[in-house]
Amino acid sequence: MKLKKITFTLLILLLSLPLFSQTNTNPEFKKIIESIIANKKADIGVSIFISGTPKKEVTQINGNNLYPMLSTFKFHIALAILHKVEKGELSLQQKIFIKKEELLENTYSPFKEKYPEGNLELTLEEALQWIVIYSDNNLTDILLRLIGGPQYVEKFINSKNVIIKNDEEDMHKDWDSQFINKTTPNETIRLLQDFYNGKILNKEHTKWLYTNMMSTASGAKRLKGKLPQNIKMAHRTGTSFTNEKGMTGAINNFGIIELPNKKNIYIAVFVHDTYETFNNSEAIIADISKATYDYYNKK
């Protein structure tokens, strides 16, 4: 009886191990990534997982360190909203009235640029597309209020490695407020895999979000910047302000890259407190993505 109890306990511990504790590192590929980020004036976190390989290869650099999320948290928000849709608490076709006073100045809002007077109706689906595709900050906060604020999203994701306390308005209050929401590269990859494999949303809403993330308008010079134009990728970006010393607090991009050989690249790159130029910081992300694509597309 005692032996059975010990065996059962060991099984539970094994199943509860972090995702990456049951994967393999490819030293050859890791050296390639290390060479890209060597001597860069930035704190860089990287996590890359390749599906469809027998060895379940993962490459991580600072993978368990917390990094500011910025607008990448809109992925987490979309997951939480679509989950409420599945529970019947919301409908993608329900109408949402967008008041003029909700369209704040001094924030990134393509919706406000197009409809500066506001006072119009959108369906929830349309509002969510403004967030997922165009990264609209005003619509983000409107939908956050609809579902109970950042704390609801954090509770829904339910991970010690996802901290979501501020909405977009809060993040714009001062320099430090941008960096309250945090996650790790490894946690991001875990969440992307769970999402893609249908462990968070049903098939219909997984497809809806994945398809809209493939149309993301931002980040053209990041993960997708040096990839072939025909490569399919679903991704999310995040960007902070640059201070008077020329330091940009965060330039982020994560996503899923579909390889022609039916493998998927799950990749997250967080460039934090970078003194590189903005273009060079984006190029770091593009170079990591290109190196990953080239290496695993050949295998």
From TrEMBL:
InterPro entries: Beta-lactam/transpept-like, Beta-lactam_cat, Beta-lactam_class-A, Beta-lactam_class-A_AS
Signal peptide: 1-21
Uppermost EC category: hydrolase
Domain Beta-lactamase class A catalytic: 55-271
Alphabetical list of Pfam families matching this protein: Beta-lactamase2
GO molecular function, a single term: beta-lactamase activity
Transmembrane segments annotated in the record for this chain: none
The reaction(s) this protein catalyses: a beta-lactam + H2O = a substituted beta-amino acid
Keyword Hydrolase tagged: yes
EC number: 3.5.2.6
Keywords: Antibiotic resistance, Hydrolase, Signal
GO BP: beta-lactam antibiotic catabolic process; response to antibiotic
Family the entry assigns: Belongs to the class-A beta-lactamase family.
Protein's recorded name: Beta-lactamase
Source organism per UniProt: Chryseobacterium artocarpi
Lineage: Bacteria, Pseudomonadati, Bacteroidota, Flavobacteriia, Flavobacteriales
